[in-house]
UniProtKB/TrEMBL annotation:
Keyword tags: Amino-acid biosynthesis, Aromatic amino acid biosynthesis, Isomerase, Tryptophan biosynthesis
Keyword Isomerase recorded: yes
Upper lineage: Bacteria, Pseudomonadati, Pseudomonadota, Gammaproteobacteria, Oceanospirillales
Gene name tied to this protein: trpF
Enzyme Commission number(s): 5.3.1.24
Xref: NCBIfam families: PRK01222.1-4
Domain N-(5'phosphoribosyl) anthranilate isomerase (PRAI): 7-199
Pathway entry: Amino-acid biosynthesis; L-tryptophan biosynthesis; L-tryptophan from chorismate: step 3/5
Name assigned to this protein: N-(5'-phosphoribosyl)anthranilate isomerase
Record-level GO BP terms: L-tryptophan biosynthetic process
Catalytic activity, as annotated: N-(5-phospho-beta-D-ribosyl)anthranilate = 1-(2-carboxyphenylamino)-1-deoxy-D-ribulose 5-phosphate
GO MF annotations in UniProt: phosphoribosylanthranilate isomerase activity
Length: 207
């Protein structure tokens, strides 16, 4: 049976992190962009990342960071996720696996993007809202994702327990990524919502 991987994003709290791991998240996202309501600082990253067990991927989210900012976080991250206008060369310079988040503006060409970001481990596709680099809580038209992309797709943007089954049926992504859809309030996750999300993904995978 095919299994859709799940990334829970925007964790800020140790209890929420423990719940996310208990519910079976494959990856945990830490927002390291200070402009986010879900941002954590380096001290919190150290604390939270040290509680993530082996085989769960620790992902750091950045928006147009300096190289020094990324380098300071590297000891606590397995994977880098870039949400800004970072060039492919910048994303690749840290010697760490990385993914590129692409916001689905009307004129985006995903074939060109996957060629430009050929060295990425996957493309994360998220909703476009002008001036907001991520975590919008909004969906986009999933039929805009071509079925023949070579890069693994991580589907993001407004997912929740109620719509993730439909999203998996429509896109068959490698992974799904959720933040607002498992939250009780900005940055605080809700364990019942996390469980419902995991259960909806598992149901979709069984179909
Ligand atoms: O969450 C943020 O505030 C954020 C800010 C800047 C860049 C990225 C950010 N979040 C990224 C994500 O959490 C994911 O792309 C997410 O899965 C989509 O968020 P949501 O629509 O709330 O599920």
């Amino acid at each position: 049976m095919r299994r859709t991987r799940v990334k829970f994003c925007g964790l800020t709290d140790a209890d929420d992190l423990a719940s996310a791991i208990a519910e079976g998240a494959d990856a945990i996202g830490f927002v390291l962009w200070p402009g986010s309501k879900r941002a954590i600082d380096l001290a919190a990253l150290q604390l939270l990342a040290s509680r993530v067990p082996a085989f769960v991927t620790r992902v750091g989210l950045f928006v147009d960071p300096s190289a020094e900012e990324v380098e300071a976080c590297l000891p606590w991250l397995d994977l880098l996720q870039f949400h800004g206008d970072e060039s492919p060369a910048f994303c690749a310079r840290f010697g760490r696996a990385w993914i590129k988040a692409l916001r689905m503006r009307d004129d985006i060409d995903l074939y060109t993007a996957q060629r430009d970001y050929a060295a990425s481990s996957a493309l994360l596709l998220d909703a476009w809202r002008p001036g907001v680099p991520g975590g919008t809580g909004e969906t986009f038209d999933w039929s805009r994702i071509p079925a023949d992309l070579e890069k693994p797709v991580i589907l993001a943007g407004g997912l929740c327990a109620e719509n993730v089954g439909q999203a998996i049926a429509a896109v068959a992504p490698f992974a799904v990524d959720v933040s607002g859809g498992i939250e009780a309030s900005a940055g605080r996750k809700d364990s019942a919502r996390m469980r419902a999300f995991m259960s909806a993904v598992a149901s979709a995978d069984r179909r």
